[in-house]
Amino acid sequence: MKRKTDCTHKRRSYFGVWGTDLSLASQSTIIKADFVQPFQVEGTHVRGQLIRLSDSLDAILTRHNYPQNVSVLLAQTIGLSSLFGSRLKFDGKVSVQAQSEGAVRLLVADCEHDGAVRGFAQFDETLCTNADIQNESDLLGRGHLAITIDPGTAKDRYQGIVELSERGVIASTLSYFSKSEQTLTNLKLFASAPSSSASSWSLGGVMIQKLPPPEERHLEPTHQALDDWEAASALLDTMGADELLDPHVDSHALLFRLYHEMGVRVYDPSPVRFGCSCTRERIENILRTFSAEDIQDIVEDEGQVRANCEFCNETYLFSLTDLDVMGIRPDTLNN
Ligand SMILES: [Zn+2]
Known about the structure:
Layout: E1 35-41, E2 46-53, H1 55-64, H2 68-85, E3 93-100, E4 104-112, E5 116-123, H3 125-128, H4 136-139, E6 143-150, E7 158-163, H5 169-179, E8 185-192, E9 202-210, H6 223-237, H7 241-244, H8 251-259, E10 264-266, E11 270-271, E12 273-274, H9 280-288, H10 292-298, E13 304-308, E14 315-319, H11 320-325
Parallel strand pairs: 5-12
Antiparallel strand pairs: 1-2, 1-10, 1-11, 2-9, 3-4, 3-6, 4-5, 6-7, 8-9, 13-14
Bound molecules: zinc ion.
Zinc ion binds near residues 276 and 312.
């Protein structure tokens, strides 16, 4: 199937937003934005989300300053958590976690219902900076990918787990939807590092799924529904990193390029921002659970306890006086 690669100003008055005053982005304008834009391919059961991240992603990755190949993998994980988090209809969060036996041991990203996203990685520095080990399949070994929906109460927590694909976290996610949820899914997600032409990290992508309305989910899909899915998925397959990351093309123009032949309806976008839930008070509460002996073990030579948030790299310092006020006494001070 062919699709147009050039923007046109042709509008379809019966397609929701296309009938409104949709202004296509000027080719000279750099668009920086952080959001997930839901959409539906008109008259079909194909629902989708377009994602664009810039400042939020850049804030996370520059705080960590990981090797670039690790940052790209974490960026993809952050993109996935943002896509899933933006779907939450309640006060909670979605975590995406990849654990592997490879050079990258752990990738974690979570997104709150209000779009606050954060993430971190654990990896072998020597292996990850080895020029011979740069592909995702070389960085990730055997392991699993877990997607956790956490409504804040342990009772209703949901976790789906799938084997980690050697082809990376995106391939693993597709495998999860295929095996665990039996939902036809296609996903393109690309991250781009700062360069001579871009001052910050950015991420762009589109995910589509065949999601019939609830009353039809128990029915066998019709030939038409499957044809619609195949067409929408084939069109998405024609889209590469250059288009999904193009900072000169806004989300409406991108969706118009992709699905103008089938028609597309867009819904209100959900904003995404960097945000970490760590606070000094939370760290204090964790320290209060430590024994005096454990506290003694982490008191530094300077006479302070240093606690680092893995998600945002924020450091919290507690002097012995601070600990005393909190009612915490290192072991030696008790003698
Ligand atoms: Zn933090």
